Amino acid sequence: QVQLVESGGGLVQAGGSLRLSCAASGRTFSDYAMGWFRQAPGKERDVVAAISRSADSTYYADSVKGRFTISRDNAKNTVFLQLNSLKPEDTAVYSCAARSRAASFTRTYAASTDYDSWGQGTQVTVSS
Question: Cα(25)–Cα(17) distance, rounded to whole angstroms?
Answer without folding.
Answer: 27
